[in-house]
């Protein structure tokens, strides 16, 4: 077993990894920037190392500083969490060269799934349903126009190296294509230092449903069911749940089988997620694969009782999966609300600052993953997520009621938060009835919540 894990991350995911390591009897090392000196992950790790100034490029994204911290503390493994270096193939390669276990897939696997156009082609060869569009990258506007005329408008120009909604533009008609192409290319170049694009037909008002996978070094891959991530704004997820209100046992089995086929095509190991779009007819299409633990992984943990982060660590240590597909069972219904330091009435503008009052909800089936506390100062340099509220009920309606109760008990004062906005989502009749899709926020809640563009 791994003896000491350096956590190359911050915030709630760093605390989550520390907890999993402690339960496995593994020592931990926290790295932190100067802005995070008072963060709880620094307090609860066995050791800690300051790796630089507040800017992420000079600390959490600095490969050399993180490797140096691992070497000076004799850490034999690194867990990247999510974001930052989690899907950085070069980082995974460097860890291997330095004989440090990277708790995740190999650099080659990250590259294969990270290049969206290449991943799409691999899924096609593995007989995983894909969204109609370009075969590989689109070199220029004229080529994009030819493909768009073939698959039909609207179409989506999408950064091959992208993620998180960046480098994506929709063209609803031929006259919009050139502008959308140029904007997507410019944004992709700025965000990822890579301006390559591919083109897909837009699936109208789909559900965004992802399948959680675990794969070991012995060729065993299982799925842990789905998560519905359709409640999102500008491709940023706000609320996740499982089971999905549109997925039955038969569709779950087909999507799970397709996800496993796709992961098997690269011999995938570790925790990963295959993301699909599901249309009104129940047809589903591959979007992308995330080669890391997801923000919303607690939904699946509470639904199945399986510690995904602990399984990641054991897989990285070379331990064979102890679970078979038939061992995976589901308990009730789980909802996760992301609680961000943002003001929805001002376009979700981040609101860093000091938390003056802080109270966590409790009760049966209520879990909160957070690194925040009273008098903690949310720094302005990083993602604005304060924490995640995860609630399990006997069924979907029970879970909705319990989540609303928990949100009423969740007190954060001194900064703006999305707590009240989450209440609006859960109280909306279309959400309660399951009659929603990825356009839900824009169509149903924009006016009610006073949202700005």
Write the layout of secondary structure elements.
Blueprint: E1 4-7, H1 11-23, E2 27-33, H2 40-44, E3 47-52, H3 63-72, E4 77-79, H4 89-97, E5 101-102, H5 107-114, H6 116-125, H7 141-151, E6 155-159, E7 168-171, H8 174-192, E8 197-201, E9 207-215, E10 221-233, E11 236-242, H9 249-264, E12 270-278, E13 284-290, H10 297-304, H11 308-316, E14 333-340, E15 342-343, E16 349-350, E17 353-354, E18 357-359, E19 366-370, E20 377-378, E21 385-393, H12 396-409, E22 411-413, H13 419-427, H14 429-433, H15 440-449
Parallel strand pairs: 1-2, 1-4, 2-3, 4-5
Antiparallel strand pairs: 6-7, 6-8, 9-10, 9-12, 10-11, 11-14, 12-13, 14-21, 15-16, 17-20, 18-22, 19-21
Number of domains: 3
Low-confidence stretches: none
The class by helix and strand makeup works out as alpha+beta
Average pLDDT, all residues: 95
Tell me the radius of gyration.
Answer: 21 Å
**Content of β-strand:** 25-35%
CATH class descriptor name of the largest domain: Alpha Beta
Number of helices: 15
Q: Major beta sheet, specifics?
A: 8 strands, antiparallel
CATH homologous superfamily label of the largest domain: ATP-grasp fold, B domain
What is the share of helical residues? 25-40%
């Amino acid at each position: 077993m791994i003896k000491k894990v350096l956590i190359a991350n911050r915030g709630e995911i760093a605390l989550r990894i520390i907890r999993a390591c402690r339960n496995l009897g593994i020592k931990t090392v926290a790295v932190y920037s100067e802005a995070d000196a008072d963060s709880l992950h620094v307090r609860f790790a066995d050791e800690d190392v300051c790796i630089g100034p507040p800017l992420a490029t000079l600390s959490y994204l600095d490969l050399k500083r993180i490797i140096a911290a691992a070497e000076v503390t004799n850490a034999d493994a690194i867990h990247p969490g999510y974001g930052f270096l989690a899907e950085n193939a070069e980082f995974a390669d460097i860890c291997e060269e330095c004989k440090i276990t990277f708790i995740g897939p190999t650099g080659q696997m990250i590259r294969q799934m990270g290049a969206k156009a290449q991943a799409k082609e691999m899924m096609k060869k593995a007989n995983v349903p894909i969204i109609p569009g370009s075969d590989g990258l689109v070199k220029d506007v004229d080529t994009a126009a030819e493909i768009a005329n073939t698959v039909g408008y609207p179409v989506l120009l999408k950064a091959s190296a992208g993620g998180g909604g960046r480098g994506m533009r929709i063209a609803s008609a031929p006259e919009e294509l050139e502008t959308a192409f140029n904007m997507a290319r410019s944004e992709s170049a700025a965000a990822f230092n890579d301006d390559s694009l591919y083109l897909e037909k837009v699936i109208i008002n789909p559900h965004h449903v992802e399948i959680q996978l675990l794969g070991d070094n012995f060729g065993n891959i299982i799925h842990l069911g789905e998560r519905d991530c359709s409640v999102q704004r500008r491709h940023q997820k706000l609320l996740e749940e499982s089971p999905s209100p549109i997925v039955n046992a038969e569709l779950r089995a087909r999507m799970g089988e397709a996800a496993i086929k796709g992961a098997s095509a690269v011999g995938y190991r570790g925790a990963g997620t295959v993301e699909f779009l599901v249309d009104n007819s129940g047809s589903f299409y591959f979007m992308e694969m995330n080669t890391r633990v997801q923000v919303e992984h607690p939904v699946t943990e509470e639904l199945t009782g399986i510690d995904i982060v602990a399984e990641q660590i054991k897989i990285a240590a070379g331990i064979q999966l102890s679970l078979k597909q038939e061992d995976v069972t589901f308990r009730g219904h789980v909802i996760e609300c992301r609680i961000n330091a943002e003001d929805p009435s001002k376009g979700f503008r981040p609101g860093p600052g000091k938390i003056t009052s802080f109270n966590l909800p409790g009760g049966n089936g209520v879990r909160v993953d957070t690194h925040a506390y009273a008098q903690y100062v949310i720094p302005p340099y990083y993602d604005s997520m304060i924490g995640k509220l995860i609630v399990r009920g006997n069924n979907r309606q029970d879970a909705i009621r319990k989540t609303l109760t928990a949100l009423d008990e969740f007190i954060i004062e001194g900064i703006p938060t999305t707590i009240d906005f989450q209440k609006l989502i859960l109280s909306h009749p279309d959400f309660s009835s399951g009659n929603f899709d990825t356009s839900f926020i824009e169509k149903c809640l924009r006016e009610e919540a006073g949202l700005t563009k």
